[in-house]
Amino acid sequence: MSSTPSDALIRISNVKHAYRTDAGPLPVLDGFNVEVPQGAFTAVVGPSGCGKSTLTRLIAGLLFPDEGDVILHGEKVTSPRNTVGMAFQNPVLLEWRTILDNVCLPLEIVPNDLSRKQKHDRGYELLAMVGLQGFEDKKPSELSGGMRQRASLCRALAHRPDVLILDEPFGALDAFTREDLWQIMHELRHNEAFTCLLITHDLRESVFLADQVVVMSGRPAKTQYVLDVPFGRDRVLDDLYTPEATQMLLDLRHQIQVAQGRPLEELEHEPEAPESGS
Questions:
Q1: Which of 134, 161, 202, 215 is deepest in the core (most CB within 10 A)?
Q2: CB contact at 8 A, 206 and 198
């Protein structure tokens, strides 16, 4: 999916970033570029340690690039942004707070004019969207892992952020729970207005959820490949078993192998995918 500067809500331009270590600088990103149009859903995949999580922190204003620009709404990111919501692999819910109070936590931090009742109404609304009505007064330890992750998604959306960053939020869940949450993400897209950037190691997840998939090269990472996903927003899991999805997954798998530095001869001798219907 291509975009122009006028319609890109998130724009990462020629970003370079290195961590300072006792052994010297550790380059992580080297001229990385990505654009995400407003309202779009972009997934980022790549080898372990290539800088995916670093990218999320740069967008959120928790880190700043050594070179290049991170742009949100046409403005350079120079500090943490309260227009960004984030959810991680570990839900990190506060055990001494109820699920409702955990979800409403951003509304206590981000400046707003909402009354306590309005804040709770927003929490109830989100929890109902993800199937957690009736669990508002429970503590996190009383919920399953999948339920806690649903609550974490609600908390990330509570203050109606323009940008939602998901850093492998479904990676620790079993396959059935993960697929259930993929479908919930599509429902949230229908009901909430946000632009999303998802970090994932799951290629099926990237194809099912995203409008475009960006493959990062090995470290220091560049933008190696961008895949446009032709599916519309109304997706079902069966879409992952179509010939189109199979080909996209093969393309992404090949790109990941390239990013991992697999020898060209090894890639050339891999068996080809069977033709549709064979």
A1: 215
A2: yes
Rounded-to-integer distance, Cα 198 and Cα 88, Å: 10
Alpha helices in 131-278 (DSSP H): 145-157, 175-191, 203-209, 243-259, 264-268
What pLDDT digit, counting tens, does each position of 159-170 carry? 999 999 999 888
Both tokens of residue 88?
A: 């991680």
Dig out the tokens for 116 from the structure.
């306590």
Closest CA to 16 of 58, 67, 70: 67
Determine which of 93-97, 117-121, 195-199, 259-263 has the lowest per-residue pLDDT on average: 259-263
Residue with tokens 């009736």: 134
DSSP annotation of 255: H
Q: Which two tokens stand for residue 21?
A: 């270590």
* Residue in this structure with the two tokens 């700043």, named with its chain if needed: 64
Q: Is the pLDDT of residue 228 over 50?
A: yes
Q: For residues 40 and 177, what is the distance between their CA atoms, to the nearest angstrom? A: 24
User: Residue holding tokens 């959820």?
Assistant: 209
**Contact status, residue 93 vs residue 148, Cβ threshold 8 Å:** yes
Cα dist from 148 to 3, 131, 140, 152, 174, whole Å? 35, 12, 6, 6, 13
Q: Which residues does 117 contact at the CB level (< 8 Å), separation at least 6?
A: none
Q: State the DSSP H helix or E strand holding residue 129, giving kind and residue range, or none if neither.
A: helix 116-129
pLDDT tens-digit readout, 4-42? 444 788 999 999 999 988 888 889 999 899 999 999 999
